[in-house]
Specification:
4 helices
């Protein structure tokens, strides 16, 4: 049974079958963290993640996707929150908070020891849900490939 939260006329669902990849890919290909990402990578990442869609409409009727997030997790100790967005025309309605409440209340994501995420500009949202800057960033490491989706060949 899907995990859902509602705020009429919007709702959030973890039902992966509802995800509109035209909307998700359309947004992700132009945002700062994944410019040019190929659609097949968006779909592959979603297949291996817990997906949460934000929709305007009804779970069992007509609906339009207006937001998205995915969680990469072992569902026991760790989760990484990624690809969080609400389309511009649906912002300032509390939908990012509804999305975060849906994610953090999901039954399979309870009792985790650590959550992580990366953001350039949404610190204010995430601190409301208990996320903080790392107290000792020297403990964290990363390996990145700059502009990975824009390279040819």
């Amino acid at each position: 049974m899907p995990h859902e939260l509602t705020q009429p006329p919007y709702f959030v669902s973890d039902d992966a079958g509802l995800v509109d990849f035209d909307v998700v890919h359309g947004f992700l290909t132009t945002c700062y963290w994944s410019p040019g990402i190929p659609r097949q990578l968006v779909e592959r990442a979603a297949r291996h993640s817990m997906c949460f869609g934000v929709y305007k409409g009804s779970p069992d009727g007509e609906r339009a996707q207006v937001g998205f997030a995915r969680v990469v997790s072992d569902r026991a100790t760790f989760a990484y929150l990624a690809d969080v967005f609400v389309l511009d025309e649906h912002r300032v309605r509390g939908l990012s908070k509804l999305l975060m409440r849906a994610i953090l209340s999901h039954p399979e994501l309870q009792g985790l020891r650590r959550w992580m995420l990366m953001t350039r500009d949404a610190h204010g949202l995430y601190t409301q849900f208990g996320f903080n800057s790392m107290p000792d960033p020297t403990r964290a490491m990363e390996r990145t490939i700059a502009n990975a989706y824009l390279k040819k060949g």
